[in-house]
Amino acid sequence: MTYVKVHNQLYGNDDETSRIESGITQKMLFDDSHCKKIEAKIDEIKAAADKNVFKKHTVDRAPLRNKYFFGAGYTYGNQMAKKGPGQEKLYPKEGPDAVDDIPTWVHELLIKPLEKEKIVPKDWVNSAVINDYLPGGCIVSHIDPIHIFDRPIVSVSFLSDSALSFGCKFMFKPIRTTEPAYVLPLKRGCSTCISGYAADGITHCVRPQDVTARRAVVILRRVFPDAPRLNPDDISLTNTPLNLHRTPTWQLALERRRETEYRDDDRKHRRRTHGHDDRGDRDYGDSENHRKHRHSNDSSSYPRKRAASATPEREVIEKTSPAKKPKKNYRAGIK
Asked: Cα dist. 118→27, 124, 237 in Å?
């Protein structure tokens, strides 16, 4: 077994770099043959998720990244009814809203070797999360909830090499990040432990440019016994988890946008063809009140009628109707 201590000072200052590094320990834990055994099991997890084998909160899907929660799952990001650090909550331990138990192979192939190497105490791990990234996948800057998870945070990388970046800020449309304060290489088969300032004092993330091939990471943590959990009322307020048989949030947002655009286009079409008004779709038609509104000071609030919208029947009526008699000017005859 080889310990790895990475010194990367490309971006951060000396003081911050040393503070980050003081909370990081890495160790080459698994050789190629052991990695292949675990990677085959990860493929089995993916296949089982595709068949809807797991409970509804076990699988969390996002573009270019899938999450599989075992032992303990929690709300985060758009899944939270109340946003902000410290608002994350665990799903119930039992019942339909619980997540699946930690698979046996995770205990045998991952947790026991970590315990043997004294990286974690025996029976310390009670939560396992598998993040499966496609090329270009990422996870935004965050700090693992300190009211839910004990330290250190232990992870082991598989399938390909990547990097963990500290102190980045994400921007979107298009997605990009600021320069990190520190970049930590993540080698396949290498375990990484973060604690102290690296875990609690600065955010960490995986940038899209650091995932050049499919990559998986198994995150092993201990959940505090008194960590807050959701009750049934809380669960009804949270967003639907991103499961395979449920429509992903990003797709729902896209569909809502398309529906809004369709309604707007339909409203505009009806207004052009039938003289509808935006406010409540009231049909003013050719009424006297509508003509008065058109020529009032706030006429910009109402659509102007176009001559082209007149129907042929109306043109015929206008041509055949008798001309209006001019009003007599009685005042002119008074001397």
From this structure: 11, 11, 41
